[in-house]
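We emphasize that the prediction below concerns an isolated chain of 281 residues; any contacts that depend on oligomerization or on bound cofactors are therefore not represented. The input was used exactly as deposited, without trimming of termini.
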Amino acid sequence: MTANFLIGLREGLEATLVVVLLLAYLARTGRRPLMPRVWAGVGFAAAVSAGFGALLTFGPRGLTFEAQEAIGGGLSIIAVGFVTWMVFWMAGASRTLGSGLRQQVDKVADAGSWGLALVAALAVGREGLETALFLWAAARATGETWEPIGGAVLGIAAAVALGFLLHRGVLRINLARFFTWTGAALIVVAGGVLAYGIHDLQEAGILPGLHILAFDVSAAVPPGSWYGTLLKGVFNFSPATTVLEAAAWLLYVVPVMILFFGRLRGGHRVAAADRTVSTAA
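Result of the prediction step, given as a token string:
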């Protein structure tokens, strides 16, 4: 549940920030009558995301076990790709997110069309579809019980509450630090989802090595124990891990984490240089 709460919180806050920025800019520029179009776009994006989640959940049923595992493994790997792209995109785009949205609003708001609803739908829908796919993959990895969905719903609810408080000016948080540490945590979670996706493909017979284990600590960490359940729910840790799963986890988490913090350091240097040039001018 904890990992899915984190996913819901981070993705939900990204989407909420987009809505907050759109509404604040419309209010500041005297375009309040256009706000219902933003909410229409948000509602459409939420409906599409929910439908996509339902399709993922109920679509594969009725297929053979091997087919279900193949689909699950493939979509898990795709989900990891999406969440990796999202983490890196937010690391670079967080500094210019507000200005980019304002430019889009200025382009479509005065055109007398529903372009503003499209801007909101695309901005929120991207987060919604990514969230639906990654949550589905994470839920499969942790056993497909109600806890992953409950954790995600709580995370999204917390994100909406934070967005409301930010919009009202009641709360101020360091968004750069928030996205840095949640991004690092999501990379670890994504590593677990990737390993589980590899295991699915092994069970489907697509990848070899299903019975070649890198380690088996089931005696020390029983899957049914509270700490085994905790490790499974937070990190997608499997007490019996194949060599291919372990290799995939290491080859993903280590280099991606290094690149992520390297990108953040590079962004901080660019921002500092911009401030220096601006001050000198």
